[in-house]
Amino acid sequence: MGVRARRSRAALRVASHFRGIVSGVYDTARSVSVGEATMRFLILGAGALGGYFGGRLVKGGADVTFFVRPARAAQLASDGLVVKAQDGEIRSPVRTIGKGAIATPFDVVLLTCKAYDLEGAMDDIAPAVGERSVILPLLNGMQHIDRLKDRFGAGRVLGGLTVINAALLRDGTIQQSEVRINITAIGELAGPASERCSAIQKSLAAGGLPAAISDRIVADMWNKFFGFACNATIASLTRSRAGTIASTAAGTAFVSAVLDEVSRVATAEGYPPAAETAPIIQGLFAQVGSAYGPSLLIDMEGGRPTEAEHTIGDLVRRAGRLGIAVPILQAALCNLQAYEINRQQKK
After folding, report:
1. Which of 23, 52, 280, 287 is most enclosed, with most CB atoms within 10 A?
2. How many other β-carbons are positioned within 10 Å of the β-carbon of residue 83?
């Protein structure tokens, strides 16, 4: 079996797994009717994730504006938004807005930035958040939820997660991977499904992006966080793709040790990982020849900043408060902090 086939099979297992863990969901057929009013979406950024979601919303007829930097705004003005998806190409002119130019609130503010950009992003979106606005973050980790609630109020913040493989190419095109892993869930942080969740779901579905509404979104987000932290720790400490790790004599034992350590922290926080999650991760790092690498490793390979402090660092600090020894996570955090120091010195 070739590398592409092995990667495809692994990706399908991951997709199936995430569909299973998004529990207590409400499908599109049960969406609450919210009338014909078009929701106004502000999407922070038009990179891989923001551009993909925005492209889907535009395709479905939603009112979408992208908050972007000047260079990206010029690129979009010249070429439009181009998303090369599995089910066809989306190509459309789009509206953009820049810093200091937001004049009225939006119905939905979709946050798709990196976790390390959150503080600046909150300042940028503040003028867009009105009394009836809702913020939907799709960030890695968990600590952004508390920061957003503190800044804008708990009632304006939804929970969200997504597992989508897409990349922003040099020419500004967003390219979806060959094997689509397109799992998205949203939900109220406390309480059952709401009209606003159903309205967002309906807008996404109109553009061909199915989203589940979860009645336990925080637990689902923790489960994704568990998987992200394990994959990022394994890959960052080895600086290697999954196939290389699978070829080592110590790889299996190392992966198991990481899973155990991260699981102890998540469980102590009250969110034990789903039973299927550990076997999925073990499978990802057991395929000789696999080119799989988590986003944090891809950022390291590209010499870019990482989300280390907001993900692995967050777990280390939680473990400290809980009195749990996490030597592997501490080693990963030290490694990533050293990487960032070296990266800054090379500038």
Report:
1. 52
2. 23
